[in-house]
Each structure stands twice: as structure tokens, then as C-alpha cells.
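User: Quick sanity check before I run a bigger batch. Here is a single chain. Can you write out its predicted 3D structure?
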Amino acid sequence: MDELLRDFLTETGESLDRVDAELVRFEQEPNNGQILSNIFRLVHTIKGTCGFLALSRLERLTHAAETLMGRFRDGMPVTADAVTLILSTLDRVKSILDGIETLEHEPEGDDSDLIGRLGAMARGEQVPREQMPPPAAAPSPGKVPASPATVKASLRSADSLASNALTRIS
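Assistant: Done. Predicted structure follows.
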């Protein structure tokens, strides 16, 4: 796997882990400016990096999410449906990242349903609850890809092993 892509997966995984801790608070305090800013920054960073790495599917999805989060930061009230939509979006982002890690390239997929709902909500249109996307399916047992944190730990172990081997040879 390309080193830049590996670094992206590792850093994005770590950022998602930090934001996950705040998502429970986001559900309880949907208009908390600090939480909104943290989620916005995460989505913005993923979007920008996706453009650099030519991950067009993930870039389109995070662009739509960033637009909606920007509206929230500008004062648009965050509703329960909006929280559900943001959580579903982050689930989809994680699913795509897992696919990238497994396949070593961006998986095929159509996110137009979710992108359309994000856009409609950003325009102030009501998105009926029954049109909210379901949470992303969990990976099947036995096919669970390594998490970015696992990959990072494995890389540290590999670096350590390589250093030790070189020291022994010298």
C-alpha cells in the first residue's frame, strides 16, 4: 500500500476515534459549538486529503457533509434528524475507509442517496425520517480489516524488528 495512503488511513482513523468520543455528547448537545467545530474540522481534513489522494467517492461524500456542518457552524439549528444524518455519514465514511484499507484502493459505491440528503438539509429542506439512511453494516466476522491503529502498531513493530535485525548484522 502506498505510504501516503497508509498514513491517511492511520491519521483519519485516529481522528475518527477522537470524534467518536464526542458523538455521544453531540447527540445530547447538538448545538454545542465546540463539538460542531471538531466534527467540521475532521470532515474538512478528510475532504482535502481525499482530493490530494484522488479518492473521489470519499471526497464527494465529505464535501456534502462539510457543507452541512458549515451551515450548522453558521447558526442553522441542529435537529435530531440532522444528528442521525451526520452519524450515518460518519458510518459511511468509516465503511469506505475500511474498504480502502482492505482493497488498497477506494471501493466502488454510490453515495448519491446520502449526498442528496446532506445537500437537502444544508439547503434547509426537511428530510423525512423514513428517508434517513440506515447505519452502515458491520463487517462480517472473519473479514474484519485491521484498524488504522492496528496498522500503525504493526508498522512500529516492523520498524523495531528491522532496526534490531540491522543492529545484529552490524
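The mean pLDDT is 79.

User: Great, the batch can go ahead then.
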